[in-house]
Specification:
Elements: H1 6-29, H2 46-49, H3 52-62, H4 68-71, H5 77-89, E1 95-97, E2 100-103, H6 108-116, E3 120-127, H7 157-164, E4 171-175, H8 178-191, E5 196-203, H9 205-218, E6 221-226, E7 228-229, H10 235-242, E8 250-251, H11 254-266, H12 278-289
Parallel strand pairs: 3-4, 3-5, 5-6
Antiparallel strand pairs: 1-2, 2-6, 7-8
Helix pairs in contact: 3-9, 5-9, 8-9
The protein binds iron/sulfur cluster.
Length: about 290
């Protein structure tokens, strides 16, 4: 894998440091409502975990108000049916290391390679439940104004990621519900049939596990980052959250934040990435030799 040039890495570190200085200043002048301590909660309760894959299937079908099954799955039943069955008969539909859930990928490095590949379409998504309470775009929305002058945005980890991924070709996604993730993934698969859909999203463990088999059905690859804090660890809490009722705040822990930022740092390249693609460099070489 080609390493990002030193200059790009230095620029990234400078941007990150500047952002952090502004965030610290905003924190002193305009403190946000945050979790004082990280609650010790199980990620999914024992009873919720029982038959979770079956519960996920029932939930996804029952609340399919976007008609994803009719619009996409039933239009290609053999392809999707085969992949879904294959996922169901495998013991694990993902692998996990700490807060990172890998779907058809083994390492973070592999994701970076995929993101940098011009034949991939990269979706970078964030669950609404870790938006600050004071978010100017509202929490239960698919919007993020990321206003550099706003003291809330200045302290928001989502804002930091959005700012630091300016040079990465990607589709941002501010996630409201598990169906919302599915909708955007189906749309991307339809819109870019020749590209590999890759993703990096944050979500609670329950969502990451419920989405796994459907992700395999779509044939997409990526990493789901598990949230901590006031997560939804029962189906009841999950259903309420899916309807915008989420009084608690979730967080990406500091060490996991750094790991996400390292992924974003390592896949930095100019937006007009076609000019840096192997195909372009090969054409350029040929024209020089002529
Ligand atoms: S950066 Fe986006 S998500 Fe964060 S507070 Fe601002 S608008 Fe909300």
């Amino acid at each position: 894998m080609k390493k990002p040039s030193l200059q790009i890495l230095q620029d990234f570190e400078i941007k990150k440091k500047n952002w952090e200085e502004k965030a610290n200043k905003a924190k002193r002048e305009h403190p946000l409502k945050i979790l004082k301590t990280l609650p010790k909660m199980v990620f999914i309760t024992k009873s919720t975990h029982r038959f979770l894959r079956l519960k996920a299937l029932i939930y996804l079908l029952k609340y399919d108000s976007m008609n994803l099954v009719k619009k996409y799955v039933l239009k290609n039943p053999l392809k999707y049916g085969f992949r879904l069955l294959k996922s169901y008969i495998s013991i694990f539909s993902y692998t996990q290391k700490d807060d990172f859930f890998f779907y058809n990928l083994k390492t973070k490095k592999e994701l970076v390679q995929k993101i940098k590949d011009p034949h991939s379409h990269f979706i970078l998504g964030f669950s609404y439940c870790h938006k600050p309470f004071e978010c100017p775009s509202g929490r239960f929305t698919d919007q993020c104004v990321n206003d550099p002058q706003n003291p809330v945005c200045k302290q928001c980890f989502i804002g930091k990621c959005v700012y630091l991924s300016e040079n990465i070709a990607h589709q941002p996604l501010f996630i409201k519900t598990v169906h919302h993730i599915g909708e955007k993934m189906f749309e991307a698969c339809k819109q870019y049939p020749k590209k590999k859909i890759v993703f990096l999203i944050t979500a609670c463990e329950l969502t990451l596990k419920m989405f796994a088999d459907w992700g395999n059905m779509l044939g997409i690859q990526g990493i789901g980052v598990r949230l901590q804090g006031r997560v939804c660890n029962t189906m009841k809490a999950f259903e309420l959250s899916e309807n915008g009722i989420k009084p608690g705040l979730t967080v990406v822990t500091k060490s996991t934040q750094e790991e996400i930022l390292t992924i974003l740092r390592d896949c930095q390249f100019p937006l007009d990435f076609k000019k840096t693609s192997p195909k372009f460099r090969f054409k350029k070489l040929i024209s020089k030799l002529r």
